[in-house]
Amino acid sequence: MTAVKGLRVVAHEAIELTRHGAAGDRRFYLVDERGRVVNGKQLANLNEVVASYDDAGRRLELRFPDGRQVAGAIELGPPLQTTFHSRPAQARELGGTFGEALSDHIGRPVRIVEGLDRSGIDRGRAGAVSLVSRASLGALARIAGTGEVDARRFRMLVVIDGLDEPHEEDTWVGERIRVGSAVVRVRGHVGRCNITHRDPETGSADLPTLDLLRSYRAGLDTTEPLAFGVYGEVLQAGRVALGDAIIAR
């Protein structure tokens, strides 16, 4: 998860999965001077910054690689119009020095905003949870000729162990599954983009992920091209913790 869309994703041992996604995940997103969403595809060194958010206290903290920290209570400005992947979305900008500090780090003006009617999850409630298996990651690593592929590269919410075959999760599309105590309807396959080229900590482009996927995943009957992992809608909220079972229903 990450509190701010585009910043480094961080592993958690347990999450509360709601109909809007994991509590606190992608709570905020980044926009440029024209109000358009920006992320790690355009700004590689966003992966160097870690965001932490305390919902009860409404406090955000940004930690930078040089040891700097910017933290404080959330104060919101007036509503503003943003563009979230070509769609209009109302949001409010965070006050304080959060945006200034992040702009200084990446060398480009950005603002951190909180959506009025949406989080920073790309597919909204229809894609509130995303899943990929270690078997699939292993298959990609073999194609790449490397020891392993870091799951964080794909920025998925849940990583699954114990599946017998790579991409077995593809077969769950249209099905209901139990994830911990939550129930999810798997809606589709996640088509990949260039952000997966980037190292999840440094942001450097170090793995030709799309070329690798194209070499063995092109032309498959998937809901999106070059699919790797699946996404779904939360039908029943619940807790998901490390070691919980995933049961296809």
Describe the structure.
- With 249 residues, the chain is mainly beta.
- Helix content is 12%, strand content 35%.
- It is built from three helices and 17 strands.
- The chain has helices spanning 98-106, 134-144, 209-217; strands at 14-18, 21-22, 29-31, 37-38, 50-54, 59-63, 69-73, 76-84, 87-94, 111-115, 129-133, 158-160, 176-179, 182-191, 227-236, 238-241, 246-248.
- It has a six-stranded mixed sheet with strand order 12-11-15-14-13-17. The chain has a five-stranded antiparallel sheet with strand order 4-3-10-9-8. The protein has a three-stranded antiparallel sheet with strand order 2-1-16, with no helix packed on it.
A few lines on this structure:
The protein contains three helices and 17 strands. By secondary structure, the chain is mainly beta.
The total strand number stands at 17
Q: Using the alpha-carbon principal axes, give the shape.
A: globular
- Classify the oligomer: single chain
Outline the biggest β-sheet. 6 strands, mixed
Overall residue-averaged pLDDT value? 96
